TrEMBL record:
This is Methyl-accepting chemotaxis sensory transducer with TarH sensor. GO terms for cellular component: membrane. The lineage of its organism: Bacteria, Pseudomonadati, Pseudomonadota, Gammaproteobacteria, Alkalimonas. Keywords: Membrane, Transducer, Transmembrane, Transmembrane helix. It comes from Alkalimonas amylolytica. SMART domains: HAMP (SM00304), MA (SM00283). The chain crosses the membrane at residues 6-23, 180-200.
Length: 532
């Protein structure tokens, strides 16, 4: 390319130099024409006019008596001074010639000046010499000296005009020669430039055709393994190297994209299966939570019955003081009631224990959900990184990865919320178990008291007060147990609601995983078009 730009530049420089030389030569001819042949004629012809016309006019007036000698002398002397000034200027400007080149001209001027001074010489007291000369003598002297100088000047002017014509002819000859040289040089230059352009065009077209054919092959076959030849040190070889580098980078990118797409597809399938398992588990937990809520409500009803029975036992104990005859029957009825209470308390303890076990199982399921959420978040982060590497082509995939990461964060937050609620439920279930244990101890004590009352029926009146106190304690305990059962039922309903939300989140995760799987399949279908 340097040669391509250098050769025309050399031709342009040569053309400029030749044009400068031509302009300088013509300028030299013009200066020679003016300085040596035209400018000097101004002073010569000025001196000729002064001597042949201006100075003769006062002489003729003086000879005819129309001017005085003094005025004539002043006018003629003034004209002669101007003529000498012109001649000195001419002598300073005229070019160097042979030794006798200006001799005749100088001699004629000197003779004319001498003749005028001779004419102005005094002839008597108040007359000039020219006054006393006869007409024929004056005319002969004018013809010989003044007109002779004019003839010499005219010959010199013609000589200068002829010399100027020679300079003009030289300039015209130079112009014709230069025109011919320009025509021949232009033809040669055009021929050389055409040959040079043909050679350069061939050297450029061949590698460009190779690059064009390579690009068409890549566009047709999507084969990124093709490479352009890199021979040479010109711009085309540089472009070929850059194209090969770009193809290598694209090939590596497609390979990385292939691996990442396969991994993403596998992880998306795994997340989809895990989400389905979570949804199934949450549905099972929801069913179990419904059963547990039903059992807690039944336990609450049983505790309410125990409270009513305890109140009835207190009434019966009051009646026992007045109806000692029926005391035995009341004691037996009380023993049966207390035994039923013990059975209900045992049932409540079993239900609370079952509630603790189920809450532990839910905690395990939540641990699995949390791990799956963390794995999903990690996979979404990897997908976002791969999308960032893909650039503009992975923008849609990056949006899907962000949505999966957001869904994973929401799942993790919901899991932690459920975990906190389950821990509260476990604490309340533990409190209920302790209350059940206390109630069971109290029922055992009531049974013991009933047995003692049966054995010591005689002391029933003294034991009525203690039994009423125990019955009041049972009433209070059952009331507390009823409140705990109600709270437990509410917590179980809340847990059921959270499990439903978890199931919904699992369904959303499964749907997102399915969409992610579809995106991964579309991405795989895209890169599989390329051969890397």
């Amino acid at each position: 390319m340097l040669l391509l730009g250098g050769i025309p530049l050399v031709f342009i420089v040569l053309l400029l130099l030749s044009s400068f030389w031509v302009a300088s030569t013509k300028d030299r001819y013009f200066h020679q024409l003016y300085d040596e042949h035209l400018a000097i004629l101004t002073d010569v012809m000025g001196a000729q006019q002064l001597l042949q016309q201006s100075a003769l006019a006062p002489i003729r007036q003086y000879r005819t008596g129309w001017a005085s000698a003094e005025a004539t002398d002043q006018q003629v002397q003034s004209y002669l001074a101007q003529a000498e000034q012109h001649w000195r200027a001419f002598s300073a400007m005229r070019p160097e010639l042979a030794e006798d080149g200006y001799a005749e001209l100088d001699h004629g001027f000197a003779a004319a000046m001498a003749k005028y001074r001779e004419w102005l010489s005094p002839a008597g007291t108040d007359a000039l010499l020219v006054r006393i000369l006869n007409e024929s003598t004056v005319n002969n002297e004018i013809e010989q000296h003044i007109s002779g100088f004019g003839a010499v000047v005219d010959a010199f002017v013609q000589q200068q005009i002829a010399a100027a014509a020679l300079v003009r002819d030289d300039a015209d000859l130079l112009t014709r020669r230069l025109s011919l040289a320009y025509l021949l040089g232009g033809a040669v230059l055009l021929l050389l430039m055409s040959l040079f352009i043909w050679v350069i065009q061939g050297s450029i077209r061949k590698p460009l055709d190779g690059l064009s054919q390579l690009l068409r092959q890549i566009a047709a076959s999507s084969d990124l393994r093709l490479r352009a030849p890199e021979q040479g040190q010109d711009e085309i070889s540089t472009a070929a190297k850059a194209l090969n580098t770009m193809l290598s980078h694209m090939q590596q990118l497609i390979q990385d994209l292939s691996q990442g797409s396969n991994q993403l597809n596998a992880q998306a399938l795994q997340v989809q299966h895990s989400s389905s398992d979570i949804r199934t588990g949450t549905q099972t937990q929801a069913s179990q939570a419904d059963l547990l809520a039903t059992a807690v409500e039944q336990m609450s009803m049983a505790i309410r019955q125990v409270a009513e029975l305890a109140r009835s036992g207190a009434d019966k104990a009051t009646e026992a003081g007045a109806l000692s005859d029926t005391g035995q029957q009341v004691v037996q009825h009380s023993m049966q009631t207390i035994q039923q209470l013990a059975s209900q308390v045992n049932l409540g303890s079993e239900v609370v224990l079952k509630l603790q076990q189920d809450s532990n199982e839910i905690s395990k399921v939540l641990d699995v959900i949390r791990k799956i959420s963390e794995q999903t978040n990690l996979l979404a982060l990897n997908a976002a990184i791969e999308a960032a590497r893909a650039g503009e082509a992975g923008r849609g995939f990056s949006v899907v990865a962000d949505e999966v990461r957001t869904l994973s964060a929401n799942t993790h937050q919901a899991t932690e919320s459920i975990r906190s609620m389950i821990e509260q439920l476990q604490q309340q279930a533990s409190s209920a178990a302790q209350a059940m244990a206390t109630a069971r101890q109290q029922t055992d004590l009531s049974v013991s008291l009933a047995e003692r009352s049966e054995q010591h029926f005689d002391d029933i009146r003294q034991a009525i007060a203690g039994m009423m106190a125990v019955t009041q304690q049972i009433f209070t305990a059952t009331d507390e147990q009823q409140q705990v059962a109600i709270s437990t039922a509410e917590n179980i309903h809340q847990l059921n609601h959270e499990i439903a939300q978890l199931s919904t989140a699992a369904s959303d995760a499964a749907m997102a995983s399915s969409e992610l799987n579809q995106q991964a399949e579309q991405l795989a279908a895209g890169w599989q078009q390329f051969k890397a």
